[in-house]
Amino acid sequence: MVQDLSTLTAFIDGEPLRFESGDTLLTFIDRHRGRGFVPTLCDAPQLEPYGACRVCSVEVALQPDGPRRVVASCHTPLAAGMHVFTESPKVRRLRKNIVELVLTDHPLDCLTCEVSGNCELQTVAAKVGIRGVRYPAGANHLDRAKDHSHAYMTSELAKCINCSRCVRACDEIQGQHVLSMHGRGFNAKIIKGLDQSFADSECVSCGACAQACPTSAISDVFFSKSIEATKKTRTICTYCGVGCNLNVATKGDQVLSIQAPADAEVNHAHTCLKGRFAFKFYNHRDRLRKPLIKQADGQFKEATWDEAYDHIVANLTRIRDDHGGNAVAGISSARCTNEENYLMQKFIRHVMGTNNIDCCARVCHSP
Questions:
Q1: 203 and 269 share one domain
Q2: Which residues have C-beta within 8 Å of that of residue 99, sequence separation ≥ 6?
Q3: Which residue stretches of 132-218 are H helix?
Q4: Domain of residue 171, CATH code
Q5: For residue 72, what is the domain's CATH number?
Q6: What is the mean pLDDT of the chain?
Q7: At what angle do helices 120-127 and 89-103 cross, to 10 degrees?
Q8: How many Å separate Cα 55 from the centre of its chain?
Q9: Which of 226, 244, 261 is the last residue of a domain?
Q10: Predicted pLDDT of residue 6
Q11: What pLDDT, on a 0 to 100 scale, did the predictor assign at position 337?
Q12: What is the number of domains present in the chain?
């Protein structure tokens, strides 16, 4: 049976367009106009719709000239034949006023802020046409102290806009429930644990909150949201067998930071502590760069790869011949490809003659 296409058609500023079952107004607009066409502060692709900021407000009507209603596009379901008006004078005034109110309680130190050039609040303010703040100075939260107590996570809640993206990331993505909103109205604020520091909370250092934050209210010690990097490389984490996708930010030959792409099927903007932050080993002074062979006096001596392979073959053969294959065991690495791990188990089973082969992928501690 052919489905009536009119049941899957809605209108953006008068243009008829197809939509998909389950679309919200915002996902519909994003698909046809691009992400950011309708500005938003509380919505993120890795999070469920929330409707806190109302910056994404649009007008909707059932007829092109019918009565209109202002709704938050991020969580409003789309219906067939609905007319969506994204840039009406009423909507533009509303968005501008909302952002203007946010800026009355936000530091204006953009030039020295770590996310300058990549700040969603900065981008949205420019998009809605903010050129000044009309409201007089009043009570604010600019005196909130910075929290640099944690090994990886930082917070500067004077820059918080109470969008709750960090709270939702900790809940929906990591399931840790460390962050929450405390207080009501003007006194509402983000807290860690029982209003503790990052270091004293139950934070597991996954970094999901920092990546979700639209400002630098929550960030990390590697300034992963800054635009200092000159190149970003899409790659796959080598720590375990899950295969999380990563975006590695580099400048010259230096790795600056790592984030998880939102469009990754495997990890969808999320990764663990190791994948996001444990990368400094790549140029550590203690990193082994050549094979070492232990000498009779207990000291290790640098060797070529040919010397190392000859040493391995000679001693594994000797142990197998003298004591049998079960005297040998192998452990393979999650850092290797599937093909390399396959060859490793084949080698242990068929060459060494034992089933003493294991791997580390299930516990995420690769050799």
A1: no
A2: 41, 55, 121, 124, 125, 128, 130
A3: 165-168, 208-212
A4: 3.30.70.20
A5: 3.10.20.740
A6: 93
A7: 140
A8: 22
A9: 226
A10: 53
A11: 80
A12: 4
Which band of pLDDT confidence, cut at 50, 70 and 90, is reported for residue 360?
confident
Q: Is 305 part of a structural domain of the chain? A: yes
Give the pTM.
Answer: 0.83
Torsion angle (degrees, nearest 10) of CA 183, 187, 189, 192: -60
Q: Two tokens at 366?
A: 């690769």
Query: How many Cα atoms occupy the beta-carbon half-sphere of 107 within 13 Å?
Result: 23
Examine the domain organization and report whether 247 and 221 are in the same domain: no
Distance CA 57, CA 69 (A): 10
**Domain span including residue 39:** 5-100
In a domain, 122, yes or no: no
Query: What's the CA gap between 201 and 223, in Å, rounded?
Result: 21
158, 235: one domain: no
| pLDDT per position as a tens digit, 1-27 | 445 555 689 999 999 999 999 999 999
Per-residue burial over 67-95, b if 16 or more Cβ lie within 10 Å, else e, is: ebeebbbbbbebeeebbbbbeeeebeebb
Residue 73: how many CA atoms within 13 Å on its side-chain side? 30
- Which residues make beta-bridge pairs with 247? 234, 259
Q: Is residue 132 part of a domain?
A: no
Cα-Cα-Cα-Cα dihedral of 183, 186, 192, 194, to 10°? -30
**22: alpha, beta or left, given left = phi > 0 and alpha = psi -120 to 50?**
left
